[in-house]
Design brief:
Blueprint (H helix, E strand, L loop, with lengths): L9 E6 L3 E6 L4 E5 L14 E6 L8 E6 L3 E6 L4 E5 L14 E6 L8 E6 L4 E5 L4 E5 L14 E6 L8 E6 L3 E6 L4 E5 L14 E6 L8
Antiparallel strand pairs: 1-2, 2-3, 3-4, 5-6, 6-7, 7-8, 9-10, 10-11, 11-12, 13-14, 14-15, 15-16
Length: about 220
């Protein structure tokens, strides 16, 4: 038991490679772990051996969090997406490669009702209430799903999934997964070690339905 969280009603957690996030019922986010590149969101690069509230998010009700390798994502109750940590490859979604020591709002998603986010090793995913999926960051393994291997410095809708209602997403190391309302699983990105579920190791630059799960619930 993490005694420093005693007395707090924790409703969600997310474990990244170096950072760990905990979300309380009050909408506050606590961080612990290695602080390099500002991945803890406290305005510095200090490590935290105990959970520490991210004060820059005080006054904002956080409803979802995701810890990646060196960056993090959060959604607030007003449907805004915030990111912080290592900005390499544009994975923070701010149009540049800058590290962010404090959470910064992803302005490119303003006006979108984001309901879920997932921070992968090098890329990011955001799911909107209309079932559309957005991705950004490095795309050299096709993990962004846009049909190429280009990086995206800003969130871009995955057009190959148009017409599919996405209900859940997960960003992995160099691949991505999505679940549609009909119970089908889709994957894209690098397929080594069978991670894509397509019985082949080549890259999938666009989402492809995993045949073994089609129609199964």
């Amino acid at each position: 038991k993490i005694e420093s969280l005693a007395g707090k009603r924790v409703v969600a957690v997310s474990a990244g490679s170096a950072p760990t996030l905990a979300l309380t019922a009050a909408g506050a986010v606590g961080r612990r772990g290695c602080g390099g590149n500002g991945r803890l969101g406290h305005g510095d690069e200090q490590a935290q051996l105990l959970p520490k509230k991210i004060e820059s998010l005080a006054g904002k009700r956080v409803v979802a969090v995701s810890a990646g390798e060196h960056h993090n994502l959060a959604i607030t109750a007003d449907n805004a997406v915030w990111s912080w940590g290592d900005g390499g490859g544009g994975k923070l979604g701010h149009g540049d490669w800058q590290n962010q020591l404090l959470p910064k709002k992803v302005e490119a998603l303003t006006g979108q009702r984001v309901v879920a986010v997932s921070a992968g090793y090098f890329h990011s995913l955001a799911l909107t209430a209309d079932g559309a999926l957005w991705s950004w960051g490095p795309g050299y393994h096709g993990q962004l799903g846009h049909g190429d291997q280009q990086q995206q410095l800003l969130p871009k809708k995955i057009e190959a999934l148009a017409g599919q209602r996405i209900i859940a997403v997960s960003a992995g190391g160099y691949h991505s997964l999505a679940l549609t309302a009909d119970g089908a699983a889709w994957s894209w990105g690098i397929g080594g070690f069978g991670r894509s579920g397509h019985r082949r190791v080549r890259r999938e630059r666009r989402p492809r339905k995993t045949a073994s799960h089609s129609g199964k619930r």
